Structure formats: C-alpha cells, structure tokens
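[Q] Does anyone have a clean structure-token version of this?
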Amino acid sequence: MKTPLTGILPVAPTPFHDDGRVDEDGMRRVLDCIIDQGVDAICILANYSEQFLLSDEERATLMRISLEHVAGRVPVIVTISHFHTGIVVERAKSAQALGASMVMMMPPYHGVGLVPGEAGIYEHFQAVSDAIDIPIMVQDAPLSGCQLSVPLLVRMARELENVSYFKMEMPFAADKLAALIEAGGDHIVGPFDGEEAATLLADLDAGCTGTMTSGLQCEHIGVIIRSYMAGDKDAALAQWTRCLPLINHENRQCGLRATKVVMKEGGVIGSDHVRHPLKPMSARTRDRLLYLAGEMDLIALKWGK
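[A] Here you go.
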C-alpha cells in the first residue's frame, strides 16, 4: 500500500450453517454487507471470526474465498496468528500470494503460562517480516497474556521493515498509544485501537488513526473517525455518544456473537450459529441488541431484506 491505511477496518465474522458447517455463500454476503457500510478495509480470520475454532483446511478456504470475492474493492487484512513461527510464516506467504494487503498477528502464546521471552517474540515477527513484502499489524491484546512493552514494539517498528501497524486493545490503551507514537515517530505508520471502539475518542486524542471493530455498525463508527480527522471534534464526540449504547452492549454483553445475530436478522446470513464450546446469547441479551441495532437503523439489520 502506497498510502497509509486509516479509518475503520472491521473484522468479518465467519458464518456457519445451523449444523456448524462453514457457510461459503454466507461469507461472500458478509463481505458485501460490510463493504456497503463504507469501510476502509476488512480483516478476516481474526478472533472475532472464531479463528480458533477453524480447521486449517477451513481457514485456507475462507481466505481464498474472501480475497477472490473482495477482488480489490477494499484492502483485506488476513490474521495469521499461531504459536509456531513456521506456521505463521507459511500463513503469511499464502496470504500475500492470494492478494492480501496486510497481515495481522498476535505474539506467540499458548495460554498465559506459555509465552516466550522478548527475544523469541522479536524473532517470531522478524521471520514473518523477512518472508513477505506487505505490512504487518501487531495485535497487542490482553487475550495473549503477553506483555508487549513500548520499547519492544518500537524496536520492531524500527528494525523490521514490514512491522508498521499496531492494534492496541488493552486497559489504558490511549496512554500506550501515545507513548508508542512518541517513541516510534514515523516508524509507527498505523496506530489503531480495537474493542469495538469503546475507548475511541481517548485513543484518537492519543494519536490513533483508525479502529478495528466488528462489522456491526461500521457506517456509524466511520463517521466518528472522519469527523475527528477533519478537525470537527465536537461532531466526533456527538457521534461517539450516539454509538455508545450499542458499542457497550456489544463489547460487554455480546462479544463476537453480536454481528452474526444482527446479520441473521437482516437477512445477510441464514444462521447466527457459533461453534461449541461457545454458546448462543440469551434471549434477553439478544432482544436488547436488536432494539439498539434498530435504534441505529443499521445497514446490517436490513441489508438482505
């Protein structure tokens, strides 16, 4: 990418049939619906895509289908996280070969008790950077149980050619974003936040240039970023305030199930199935989600009707 990627980069959910099989046609419809929300890029095979519940074969199929179907309409970011460096390198090569614009990866971890030291983490990212020619986004999230210090992140940005984007989604993310941007300077090409934009205003104040949310209400969250970047911070705050009830309900009550529930209701996909051991959301939580989605008149809630 010649121009740094900014804006809203949502994670696409992976649709399944009611019996748990991957819904390939549904995947295509999910991508079309998200593009129609006016996004700047799409991320696939992330944690909110249930990547940890996909077989290697399913993962390869979904990557091929997604990149072929999007066909350059927006950049596609492929998540390649795995504990084994060799597998991450092969996933990165495959993603680039199929046309991915970027890869995203977490540090290697297998539960909080099995995390390599900083040297191993650096070498993990170094191996991928050496193997591909597209940008790498570092996903810094509490899920890994891995503490990525600002000095380590800055070192990777300075020394590893393709490590230039960072998704920060931890408590006090704004402070870490600000410290990263100050220490890394021009090497920090794309500082992003996550967690459904729950802290987006503070993170924009800290210098982030976009967010990676779910695919639920991208058309509304995108307005926040565009308003802020245009210098209209009052409009950004007003829009963020409008989005907050749904942001909060998704982030704290629904998790990755929210987009699938709304997309099923909106005729985008035929099932909101999540794979075991995940469980469907309660009727109470679902009812509140659909009420809030209706109040926001979401594209996803009417796209397939």
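[Q] Thanks! Anything notable?
[A] The chain has eleven helices and eight strands.
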